[in-house]
């Protein structure tokens, strides 16, 4: 600890000497608001699969989950929903002026992001088939069994709404024909609210038989009955943290109009490492990527 503190003092001393040496070339720097951001984004992340026991811990009062689900098998297929968010941010920069030109430092971007996404999901199903009757062909006398088929499925989603504070340092290139690129490093942290566990149950019953048709056997269905139930439960709020690399391209709307040249559209990709806590179950930590489309109002 003492050695680290000594290194820190040494770095601060060198930095202060460097700033003092540059004061002969530059006037006093000004720090102020340079950009305003409005954005919308999507994650390549639909949640993580979870076991039945984990969901039972989250919803001990669920009549669906606490019922006898023996014989149910987990399904690989899952149709997830994209995680979508909106954000606002402000960008601040130091600006210096030397004898010949303006010098601008990196942009410090501070913002808030809000959205909704899935954290955990799973689905289970089973099918029972019982012979109940036999049909006979009037022409050939061939027998065709009739089965009673019952299908049962349970699907579960843990959904969250969240609010994140976001801070990043952005390094931006010069404009060339209205285009510029940027990159940097960022961190974000926040909490979820209105976490909701949604449990859905579907049961159906029908009669199935193989019947003759044009010298072929085809599967016939004889009526169906459906029953659908849904339960919703509030769960504990969760915490999230991420460190990511923002990188993208910026397009200036116009280089002629003094008003329109302030308007920029940008695409930003944020590969990073993200962490989510889920009380009473587990934590999720993994690399993931976010894609951002937004508008930036350049004030300077």
List the uncertain runs.
Answer: 1-27
Gap from first CA to last CA: 42 Å
Mean pLDDT: 81
Q: Outline, from the CA principal axes?
A: elongated
Can you put this structure into words, describing what you see?
This protein has helices at residues 2-22, 52-58; strands spanning 30-43, 48-49, 73-74, 83-97, 102-136, 143-172, 179-213, 216-234, 239-244, 247-252, 263-278, 282-298. It has 2 helices and 12 strands; from the N terminus they run H-E-E-H-E-E-E-E-E-E-E-E-E-E. With 300 residues, it is mainly beta. Strands 1, 2, 3, 4, 5, 6, 7, 8, 9, 10, 11 and 12 form a 12-stranded mixed sheet that branches.
Map the helices and strands.
Layout: H1 2-22, E1 30-43, E2 48-49, H2 52-58, E3 73-74, E4 83-97, E5 102-136, E6 143-172, E7 179-213, E8 216-234, E9 239-244, E10 247-252, E11 263-278, E12 282-298
Parallel strand pairs: 2-5
Antiparallel strand pairs: 1-4, 1-12, 3-5, 4-5, 5-6, 6-7, 7-8, 7-9, 7-10, 9-11, 10-11, 11-12
In summary, what is this structure?
By secondary structure, the chain is mostly beta strands. The chain contains two helices and twelve strands. Mean pLDDT is 81; it is low at 1-27.
Question: Which short descriptors sum up this protein?
Answer:
300 residues, disordered N terminus, 2 helices, 12 strands, twelve-stranded mixed beta sheet, mainly beta
